[in-house]
Specification:
The protein is of the alpha+beta class. The chain has one domain: Trna Endonuclease, Chain: A, domain 1, CATH 3.40.1350. It is about 25% helix and about 25% strand. It has five helices and eleven strands; from the N terminus they run ββααβββββββαβαβα. A five-stranded mixed sheet has the order 3-4-8-9-11. Strands 1-2 form a two-stranded antiparallel ribbon. Strand 3 and strand 4 form a beta hairpin. The protein is globular. The mean pLDDT is about 90.
Length: about 200
């Protein structure tokens, strides 16, 4: 086997289907990728999982789920027409016990941006996408909250240009402050069309 080279291309991750079995030395084991997903990702109300779920919902609306998600890439999604999209999520409800609903705040911090294909970070701190999609799981009843019911979500769209002009290097934004910037509110099924109209 050759020594590890100084330069290795990024791995192109293909989507898995769930039935793939874990294995050992060619022998299949009695547990699968689906089991792993169920074990690790069933709590869709926790902050980390909900953020990835929001990205997936938007990706489905944009029709760009043919490639697996790239962790830590400069922007979350790219539309078929090439528009770079950042997806942010928030929710009133969490899976743990709460004394009151969570305050709604979205992260909008500029970053140096890392490119998974080149393994290089940008030199200037900036907002890497052209459009932000702020996804709010707006349901407030723990007995009936269902993160995979897209009707329980509200989607607010804003160009990065507006964010840069109005809030500068600000790292987060509350829902009330976001609404003052007059984002486009849309529903699932119309996110892609609304993004195209923004630019």
């Amino acid at each position: 086997m050759n020594e590890l080279s100084d330069h290795l291309d990024a791995i192109k991750v293909k989507p898995r289907f769930g039935e793939e079995k874990f294995h050992k030395n060619g022998e299949q084991l009695p547990f699968s990728i689906l089991g792993y997903w169920q074990w690790s990702g069933s709590d869709l109300l926790n902050n980390a999982a909900r953020g990835i779920l929001a990205e997936y919902i938007v990706a489905c609306d944009l029709g760009v789920t043919d490639q697996a998600r790239v962790e830590w890439d400069a922007c979350d999604l790219v539309t078929k027409s090439g528009i770079k999209v950042e997806v942010k999520s928030a929710a009133y409800l969490q899976s743990w016990k709460q004394s009151k609903s969570s305050a709604i705040t979205f992260s909008i911090a500029p970053t140096y941006g890392w490119d998974a294909k080149t393994n290089e970070s940008g030199k200037i701190k900036a907002r890497q996408a052209e459009v932000y999609v702020f996804c709010l799981l707006s349901h407030k009843d723990k007995a009936t909250v269902d993160p995979i019911d897209v009707a329980q979500w509200r989607f607010f769209l804003l160009t990065t240009k507006v964010l840069n002009e109005k809030v500068g290097q600000q790292k987060s934004i509350s829902l009330n402050s976001l609404l003052k910037l007059k984002p486009i509110e849309t529903a699932f099924g119309n996110i892609g069309n609304s993004i195209e109209k923004l630019l």
